[in-house]
Amino acid sequence: MTTLSRRSLLRGGALGAAGLAGLAGCGTVGAAPTTTGTIPPAASGEVVRLQYWAWLKDLQQVCDVWNAQRPDIQVEAVWIPGGNAGGYQKLFAAIAAGSGPDLAQVEMRNVPSFLLQSGLVDVSRYGFDQVAGQYDRALVEQVSFLDAAWAVPQDSGPMATFYRPDLLEEVGAGPPATWAEWLETARAVHAADPNRWLESFPVGDTSVFLAYASQAGAVWFTPEDDRWLVNMTDDATMAVARHFDTAVSEGVVNTSLAPYSPGWFAAVGDGRIAALTSGSWGDALLEGATGAEGLFRVAPMPVWSDLPGSYGSSYLGGSTAALMAGSEHPYEALEFATWMTTSPEGIDAMIRYSGIGWSPATDYIGAARQEGSEFFGGQAYGTEVFAPAAQEQNLDWTWPPIAQQVMDGLGDRFRTVVTGGTTMVDAVAAMEGDVVEIFREKGLSAEVVS
User: Where are the transmembrane segments (predicted)?
Assistant: First the structure.
C-alpha cells in the first residue's frame, strides 16, 4: 500500500467499497459502511421526517425555525444524555440493531470511533464537498479520512483565557502572553494569597492536557499505510508535561476544584480563582458564577514561545451533526445540517436556544458574538479574541478511534500525580506503552515511533 500522510489522506485516499474491504482486512485506520451508490432524494411532494438525537438543550426550538420554512422536511429533536454519559451507548445500540436516527450529535474526537463501527454516512457522497468551503478548514480536516468526510462540523471550542484584571493587577500582572509568563503569574498570585490560585488544572479531564499538547505542536496519532503511528512522547508533549508537573508540584495551580464544578463556581465567585483557560463555550458557563458579572475579561491563551511549530490557540471540545448509517434520507438530513451550521438564521438559533460553542462557519460567528458582553465589561471578545483564535489551530492533529480509551487511561494516571505517585511526564510515557495493545483490541495495527 502507498504510505499516506494526514494531508494526503484527505486529498487522495480511496474509501470506496473495495478500498474499505481491503483496509479492514489489513487492520488499518478503520472500517466504514460498504454500501455503494447513494440513496436518492425524496420524490417531489413527499414529506420527509427526520430525527436528530442530541444532548443540546432546546434543540427542538432550532428545528422549529427550520420546520416553519420547510414543510417538506420536518425535523424532530430527540434528547439523549451527553456522549459518554449514555448517549453514545444508545447510538451504538441503535447502530447494532440497524435502526436509529438520521442525525446524531457526535463529538469530533469520537467520529473515528463511530466510523470504526460502520455507523456513519460519507457525507461527501451527498454534496458536502460543495459546501465544505463554508466551514473552518481545521474542523473539516477533523472529520475527514481517506478522501471522505464523515460528519458535518456543528460547533467548536477555540481556546482563550478568561481572567480578572483586578486580581492580576494586585500582583502587577496582566493576562499572561506566554506559558512561561503564566507560571510566573501563577506563582505570584498564590504567594500573595495562599487561598487564591491563577487557575485550576483538571487532572482527571485530560482533554485539557491534550489541547495544550496540540497547541504546542504535538501530533500523537498519524494514520499511515496499514497502521497508526503513535508518538505521545515528542518534544512538544514532554515540554507541556514538564510545565504542568512544575505547576502542580509547587502547588500554584488548584487541582481539587475541576472547572465548572460547584466548588469551582464558588471559588470563582469569592475571588479564589483568578483565571480560566478554556474553550469559547466557557463564556456562557462562567456567567453562572455568582457575583462575577463585569469582573472578567478575555485574552488570547498563552503561547509556547520556546517551542518552534507551536500554535496560537487550540480546540477544546467541538461536536458534529453526523449522518447515521441507518438514515433513509441522507440528502435531506445533510440539507438541514448545512442550514443549521452555516446560515445566519441557523447559527443564531443555535446560539440563542442551545448555547453552542463557536460557530463552524468561516464567515459568520453569530450576531450575539459580534456585540459587547455586559458580563465581560462590554468587551466584544468574539471578534477580538475567538475569531482569530479559530484560525490558529494545529491542522495536523488527528483523533484516532481509541481517543476515549487514551483519555480515560491517561486520566487514571494523572490522578496519582497530585499524590506524588507519578509525574505527567511518566504518565504520558506509560500510556504510550499501552496504546498499541488498545489498538490491537480494536482489530487495528499500530506502532510507536517516538
Answer: none
Q: What is the Cβ-side half-sphere exposure of residue 286, based on CA atoms within 13 angstroms?
A: 27
Q: For residues 253 and 83, give the distance between their C-alpha atoms in angstroms, rounded to a whole number.
A: 29
Angstrom CA distances, 403 to 219, 232, 305, 424, stand at: 13, 13, 28, 18
CA distance 23 to 6: 16
Residue 72 DSSP symbol: T
The grid coordinates of residue 415 equal 490522578
Give the Cα separation of 76 and 62 in Å (integer): 10
Q: How many residues would you count in the chain? A: 450
Q: For the residues 339-366, what does the mean pLDDT come to?
A: 96
Measured CA to CA, the distance from residue 107 to residue 210 in angstroms comes to 15
- At 225 the pLDDT is 82
Domains, in order of start, for the chain: 6-157+317-381 (3.40.190.10), 158-314+397-448 (3.40.190.10)
Strand partners, 78: 53
pLDDT in tens, 139-196: 999 999 878 999 999 999 999 999 999 999 999 999 999 999 999 999 999 999 999 9
DSSP state of 50: E
Within 8 A by CB and 6+ apart from 385, the residues are 160, 298, 299, 300
* Residue 14 burial by Cβ neighbours in a 10 Å radius (0-12, 13-18, 19+): middle
Residue 353: DSSP 8-state: I
CA distance 165 to 297: 7
Residue 81 CB coordination number (10 Å): 12
| pLDDT > 60? residue 381 | yes
Q: Are 13 and 141 in contact (CB under 8 A)?
A: no
Q: What is the mean pLDDT of residues 401-425?
A: 94
* Mean pLDDT within 225-237: 95
